Amino acid sequence: MAKRALITGITGQDGSYLAELLLSKGYEVHGLIRRASTFNTSRIDHLYVDPHSPDARLFLHYGDLSDGARLVTLLSSIDPDEVYNLAAQSHVRVSFDEPEHTADTTGTGTIRMLEAVRLSGVKTRFYQASSSELYGATLPPQNESTPFYPRSPYAVAKLYGFWITRNYREAYGMFAVNGILFNHESPRRGETFVTRKITRAVAAIKAGKQDYVYLGNLDAVRDWGYAPEYVEGMWRMMQAEEPDDYVLATGVGITVREFVEIAFERAGLDWEKYVRFDERYLRPTEVDALIGDNSRARQKLGWSPTIDGRGLARLMVDADIEALPHAGHPWIDKVRLESWITPTFSNAGMA
Ligand code: NAP
Ligand code: F7E
After folding, report:
1. Mind listing the pLDDT tens digit for each residue in 83-109?
2. Ligand with smallest separation from the Cα of 186
3. Binding-site residues, ligand 2, Cβ < 6 A
4. DSSP character for 340?
5. Thinking of the domain 4-184+225-248, which architecture would CATH place it in?
6. Among 3.20.20.70, 3.30.420.10, 3.90.25.10, 3.40.50.720, what is the CATH number of 191-223+253-289+308-340?
7. How many Å lie between the centroid of ligand 1 and the Cα of residue 192?
8. Cβ(150)–Cβ(156) below 8 Å
């Protein structure tokens, strides 16, 4: 019998790569999607097969992490072997604008999923998308023993998700794991995360369709890895004999500035001519440096990443340059979208 998995957040970057991976391994894959007034499945459209077809192995269900009763019903009817809880309001700066919504989706949403597993009585393994943002102000290198010091409403919500997942493992004997994933990116990365914002801007500037890109703090250090390698790590955590928590990271940290330099250089451009500062992209509290120690995942899961932040900058610029001619006007409109987000806090002193 094929294994059955349920993925929340299947329309996101990670959800789309994980769905691909599980389908390639022969799983039947179920995904939770939100009803929206526009289509929100562009990252998984290539995987879609008409559910009436005997070949269909991907099934989508409407639902929302804010709706606990729906989650119980879905868990009961799908009866999955593995649940990957990837859904979240995942943008750190937006979490300062929408802290209550972030707490509800990213924090309380996790307990709704765990309760749905418990109340439905299904026998399933559970993956929680935890984050290196938990470490916040704690200095690198960070591993599974490093104390947490969250620095945003997003990180505080993820802290709740981390501990409630661990609590359900201990209280109810659930196979529940936390993947503490450091930043991971790809050509499918959301357009307002810094890497993708930069690489899309490089492509648009190179094509003469954009003049500048406005950024915030260039000094932040991040340990950027490649998303398809990280979803492989998620799956390995779920195949282990015992449930545990794991850091996935490359161990290589670079600044936003270095990512910018490499990205522009890849397109033969001098970044200093095109990058401008805008204080609205600063955060009220910043996470200065995240660099992970992935020893446990290497030793226990045999997981080892091959692409770090420098390689990613080149890979993502190439992909955005390639995609630009096919993108049309809406693509450019999205490039401009972020420039009219209203600043909601006074940060003049932080510039
Ligand atoms: P993403 O691209 O922002 O995707 C988030 C997903 O969550 C989307 O499918 C979104 O649906 C869905 N979602 C949001 N609110 C929801 C709600 N109330 N109910 C149901 N679904 C909802 O995020 P990602 O980069 O793939 O990350 C996946 C997970 O890993 C997230 O939990 C994120 O916080 C965490 N994480 C990410 C990173 C990283 O570097 N990427 C690192 C550590 C942890 P729509 O498409 O409809 O918006
Ligand atoms: O910011 C700086 C910003 O928004 C990275 C999420 O996937 O990873 C992600 O969170 C850095 C920060 O990602 C701009 O201040 C400068 O220091 O790409 P980001 P993030 O906040 O690290 C973690 C692990 C998650 O769990 C999250 O879900 O870049 N930065 N200028 C900027 N950031 C943005 N977005 N836009 C700028 O203009």
Report:
1. 999 999 999 999 999 999 999 999 999
2. 1
3. 90, 92-93, 131-133, 182-183, 192-194, 197, 215-217, 220, 222, 256, 281, 283, 286
4. G
5. 3-Layer(aba) Sandwich (3.40)
6. 3.90.25.10
7. 13
8. yes
